[in-house]
Design goal:
This protein is α/β, with parallel strands linked by helices and 193 residues long. It has a single domain, classed as Molybdenum Cofactor Biosythetic Enzyme, Chain A, CATH 3.40.980. Helices cover 34% and strands 21% of the residues. It has a 6-stranded mixed β-sheet with strand order 2-1-3-6-5-4, with helices on both faces. It has a two-stranded antiparallel sheet with strand order 7-8. Helix 2 packs parallel to helix 6. The longest helix is centred in the first third of the chain and has 13 residues. The two termini are 24 Å apart. It catalyses: molybdopterin + ATP + H(+) = adenylyl-molybdopterin + diphosphate.
Length: 193
Amino acid sequence: MPHPLPTVTVGLVSASDRASSGVYADEGIPALKQWLQAAVKNPLNFAEALVADEQSAIEAVLRRMADSDGCDLIFTSGGTGPAPRDVTPEATLAVTDKEMPGFGEQMRQISLYYVPTAILSRQTAGIRGKCLIVNLPGRPKAIAETLGGVRGESGEIKVHGLFAAIPYCVELIGGAFIETDEAVCKAFRPKQK
């Protein structure tokens, strides 16, 4: 009898002055939840936070989610551009033990298929303890593209999305074993010798 999949605790942080003050509804967290619920087979437990573009507030919520809430994985949404108030990457790097620059490089590669302004993105990722923290764009369409990758007209993968590498990364740092629905995103793990 196969073992049941462990529950994965995922932190979802949306950094936006306007959404956090009620000017408009946040779209980042709902888009992330929808994509993850379709892609991940494990039971999911979400910790959510909508914060202003304040580095200290973002740092505090990332620390809480990683250290107290026991998140295996945290996604941030928004605050990664060149504008003065965009400080999510700074907050992420301030609380992580190891930077994972390949995530930002891959996000920009994916986004360049869609918009030339992808080079303005400063998204990054890092590890805090046993938690992977990844900065994502704020728009729902861009979130899905970044996580799922670029596909051709017949559905073949042209550029791998970020999530293909995330389950293995989380496993390597001591987090939960994450299984994906391959129709949405096939997780890559090296073949066992």
